[in-house]
Amino acid sequence: MTNYVYITRRVVFSASHRLYSRHLSEQENWDIFDKCSRAKGHGHNFELFVTLKGIPDPVTGMVMNLSTLKTILQEHILDPMDHRFLNDDIAEFKDLLPSIENLVIVVWNRLKPHLGELLYEVKIIETENNFAFYRGE
Ligand code: NI
Prior knowledge:
Layout: E1 5-17, H1 26-33, E2 42-54, H2 66-81, E3 84-85, H3 86-89, H4 100-115, E4 119-125, E5 131-134
Helix pairs in contact: 2-4
The structure holds nickel (II) ion (NI).
């Protein structure tokens, strides 16, 4: 038996986005995205849950020091994304629609180089009824 533990840190950030594709007509955008396609965007308070999977260190009892994880999230997610317009301010969304599905992938890809094999899941709650998660598969 291997003592794998899943540990999660939650952070919250506010950002706006517009769901609109320039590959579709105005009518098609409206039909698909409805009011989420309006030109000036709309905001969400995104709740991000980052889950690590690992074996607790025999000395510290930790899978990872959560203060280290906090610093990584601050630097690579919160500083660039909090109070931003995701469509324009995040390079990955230059040619990618900033849907919740794509956002979990973008956050995963930003964190992966810093968390390596420990990174298990990125989950983002967009509204009280909608959330997405990604496990890098
Ligand atoms: Ni939205």
